[in-house]
Amino acid sequence: MRILLVEDEHKAGEYLRKGLMEAGFIVDWAKNGVDGLHEAQHSEHDLIVLDVMLPGLDGWQVLGELRKTKDTPVLFLTARDDVHDRVKGLELGADDYLIKPFSFMELIARIRTLLKRGPSRESEHIAIADVQIDLLKRRVTRGIDRIDLTAKEFSLLVLLAKRPGEVLSRTLIASQVWDMNFDSDTNVVDVAIRRLRAKLDDPYPLKLIHTARGIGYVLEEKE
Q1: Which end of the chain has fewer CB within 10 Å, C or N?
Q2: pLDDT tens by residue, 23-55
């Protein structure tokens, strides 16, 4: 199991890293909020132990940004014990909250409980480049522009956006979006992609939907 520790205090970080490693975890340690968010977004971790008072970005900001794209379990570890702070953390999407000073045995117990539970939610937002997808409101924006999509176009975009960088075959897309067995003579997927591109890509210099010839399509940010 791999844990991301985001803690700026060197002594506390060394203590936690050593203890977690002795408990059998692989530990990545970020010493500020900016690095912590980058690690959380671009690397895979089973759980994140996150301090609130951090340089660069505080814990609230890190969690708020992270929850737009990922649902990695987060345990807040902080000296801030005000009930309003605890409520704020939980409302932002934290899975647990432990106050400093704490028992290390309790920390390990809470971590193991969260790991058994696994991710508790599907992220309500997906972001790639300057595109924001609100899954609950079924709203898509690119930069400051609202992108109006049909129900099928929205489902198609969400399918691609949930698997960025992965080439999805026409067969898979047809089965997931249209719940149909794909007929190679049917161009429903290609037509839908063309319509989605016209709204999402054509007006903008950075193209996000790319064709893998003979295979399918992929959504990714590349030069």
Answers
A1: C
A2: 999 999 999 999 999 999 888 899 999 998 899
Partner residues linked to 91 by β-bridges:
none
Mean pLDDT on 99-111: 90
CA separation for the pair 174, 176 (Å, rounded): 6
End-to-end CA distance of the chain, in Å? 34
We report the CATH number of the domain holding residue 109 as 3.40.50.2300
Residue 14 identity = E
Q: Taking 80 as the threshold, does the pLDDT of residue 80 lie above it?
A: no
CA distance 43 to 35: 11
Strands 74-78 and 47-50: parallel
Summary mean pLDDT of the chain: 87
Domain containing residue 169: CATH number: 1.10.10.10
CA distances from 164 to 5, 61, 81, 160, 220 (A): 26, 24, 38, 6, 5
Number of domains in the chain: 2
Q: Give the lowest-confidence range in 98-107, 115-124, 190-199.
A: 115-124
